[in-house]
Amino acid sequence: EEISKGLLSVLTGKSQSYDWSCYTANLEEGTLWRTKLTGSYVKEAQRQQRLRIDADQLRRKMKDEGVAAEIHRLEKDHMERIAEELKSKARINAEQQKVKAAREIREAQQKHEVAMGKKKASEEAELKELQKKKASVKAEIKKLQEAQKAANRVAQVAGTKLFHQTDTNTADIILRTQHMKPGRQGLAGGGIYFATTKELTGHKAQARGVILEVTVNLGKIHTLEASGDRHMTLAKLKGMGFDSVCIARPVQSGHEYVVYDPTQVLRIQRA
């Protein structure tokens, strides 16, 4: 026991205060025994020292792991708080964006409504102005129509003085009967053809000899190109809303007038 205490004191660094007298008294007698006993206790002391070292290391490790775990927990809590703050900021930003977008939409709608109101007012004003112009044009057209009707009535009574040339026998019959028959064909179909002057009848007439001065009710005149319309008839002309035809010939040839109804010929006499 004393030897064990002495060895432990040596191993633990407390050998200066230990009393070695009991050990040295019997040193010579128990040399072999002491040697064996000393080796066993040294090993035991070393094992216990290793155990203490391992225990200290384990405690430090556990402490370090606890600190690391705490740090990890704190970091996790911190990251979670940051994440929550970011989410909160994102929600607030999204709400602000929604409010801003709604405000911009309302402002745009208001501007659109104002613009549409102005546009509508402008369109209504333009429409009223157009209606006034339309009414004015209608009134002018009505006046012109009335004037045309009056002119037509005068023309129907007075007629238009035109000229027609034919042979002597045919001229005598026409003068005696005061009646002219439409031809079978011509530049504007089968009708009664007239020139505007006596001189222009020469190259228009199919038969020559006597020039007749004829008063004709032309009514509403349909103008044809110089090439005419060889398929023109009274029914076709009436269907178009006209009473006579004017063939727009060159100036040197003079215009040519055609009627298809003999009753439009009012008076006939020698030119």
Summarize the model shown:
The chain has 271 residues and is an alpha+beta fold.
Q: What percent strand? A: 5-15%
CATH third-level topology of the domain at 159-270: Phosphoenolpyruvate Carboxykinase, domain 3
Number of helices: 5
Strand count, sense and closure of the main sheet? 4 strands, mixed
The CATH class of the domain at 159-270 is Alpha Beta
CATH architecture level-2 label of the domain at 159-270: Alpha-Beta Complex
Structure write-up:
- Keywords: Coiled coil.
- This is PARP catalytic domain-containing protein.
- By secondary structure, the chain is of the alpha+beta class.
- It is built from 5 helices and 7 strands; from the N terminus they run αααβαβββαβββ.
- α1 crosses α3 (about 30-160).
- Among the domains are: about 60-130; about 160-270, Phosphoenolpyruvate Carboxykinase, domain 3.
- Strands 2-6-5-4 form a 4-stranded mixed sheet, with no helix packed on it. The protein has a 3-stranded antiparallel sheet with strand order 1-3-7.
- The mean pLDDT is about 80.
